[in-house]
Amino acid sequence: MNAPSNLKYSKSDEWFDPSSGAVGLSDYAQSQLSDIVFVEILVDEGETVEVGKAIASVESVKASAEIFSPAAGKVISVNKGLSEKPETLNSDPYGAGWMIKVEGGTTGDVMESAAYVKYCEERTH
Amino acid sequence: MTDISVSQNVKIVEPTVYELSSVGRRGVAMPASDVPETALPEKTLLRTSLPMPELAEVDVIRHYMHLSRFNYSVDGGFYPLGSCTMKYNPKINEDTCRLPRFIYTHPLQPIETVQGNLALMYEMQEWLKEISGFAGVTLQPAAGAHGEFTGVLMMAAYHKSRGDARRTKMLIPDAAHGTNPASVGMLGMSVATIPSDARGNVDLEALETACDDTVAGMMLTNPNTLGMFDENIEKVIKLVKDCGGLMYGDGANLNALLGIVRPGDLGFDVMHFNLHKTFSVPHGGGGPGSGPVGVSQRLVDFLPSPLVTIVEEGDDEAAPLYGFFTPKQTIGRMKAFHGHFGGGLVRSYTYIAMHGAEGLKDVSQYAVLNANYLQARLRKTYKIPYDRICMHEFVAEGQFEGSDVRALDIAKRLMDYDFHPPTNYFPLIVHEALMIEPTETENKDTLDAFADALIKIAEESLLQPELLHSAPHITPFGRMDEVKAARELVLCCWLPEGYDLEK
User: Can you give the three-state secondary structure of A18-63, one letter per residue?
Assistant: First the structure.
């Protein structure tokens, strides 16, 4: 399981990059969902998001899931190409799979990488 | 599927009915027209051409006969599809629902001419009230989710009638069926998800925190989708009622409770029945369902209209006269006519009449016994995350230490052993969930054969994992590419121009 140390992680498996403001779905979450076949970003640029607000809807062959914002702030960018290529969330969750970028984002209850890895391991076993 | 090379897994290929078509073939020979031909008025046509397959009768029969052989049914084998209650449907139901006096009636006939139908519906309402402990029942809803929607509409109408406009939040446990939040969403209400605790019950602390004066109610499936009867059910109901909410029971799992517990007695205000599950109507593949709804005294006035009632009491000489009536604060009609009469109500009526009160209790006791027997046989091989006495179903994990085999692989491999796979990847709170509901109609030999197959598959998962990854092997079609099917939907009979099948 991959969880880069420069990112923060929420209990509901989103990641947040404090330097760029990017938000996405963790590697653990994409592997649990398996093949992702649909993604829809639910917020627009310029909108303000709260911590815990549903920002995207994701469907895999196994399940559907809502993605909640781990940070609060103004949405400055939305990954518009993602809905055309939902599989990006599987292949590159921390790179091309970013969903939105939040400006001046203040985070909610998030974990460091090591704590998140431990949290995921506890849930698997 | 003209080209066998489309998938190397395909062993038998049945062309589509369009591919079998040949210009000029006919199923019926019509006599020459004896009236002058005239063109259809063009501006009223939906389309100018509609390609229809042209085949002889025998070609059509064989085509559908071939397709039917690809099917798997509860008449053909064991079907432990968790949450779906795929019990055997007694064939006597098929006789009664085809009785000419039921078949040749129409919902718009004068009531004096359909007294038999109305008597059956009236008795069905009464029986469902007796089974569930509710004060009133509507037979209208077309299926379970439609029943949910009906129930939530009545809950909303109740709060509205009291001028209580703030109640727009519905509490739904994380183990719930996805239809619950969907039904609530259709009314524009919001959903608050309540987690389950370590024993598979509603987390009381989380519930207490969520209970406030914006709660419209709670939708609870009991036993829940883990097959667990909530050990704190009375506390759960009290918490919801104390904050002014109504209690909705999802009757999906009623097959565990017949003659043992009545949701109305527990304090539920409203519950839908799935006649097709609990009371044996063949279902699957989208229908037909039937989802009557029962309500407690405080919701009876909101029931959909019309309900069946006795208009004139009978006596020793004459049968009563049955008719319709409209509840005082009714939410209105939920269906054009009176529910799925022949397909649902007559079959279920037959089933209930055949079993009687004691027989229905047996149904539930055997359903629970069978599930517990299977759980006990599989416990050493498969991890049971919520391991206690289950009700009519249980959930196992389809993964093993040191193996990359997943629930989906196990489900597919079961088809090679001639069993229908269990529900997989639901409920979402169990990793690699395999949700197994044997129902009461299976004997010990069948249960043992199924348990043996699952134990054998667990061995295979360590010794020959490839066998599972590529399963099924002996079915007419091999492993389907579910990802491609979801990502590249083709929702028509003709491939779009320029669509490359090989790509």
Answer: CCCCEEEECHHHHHHHCCEEEEEECCCCCCEECCCCEEEEEEECCC
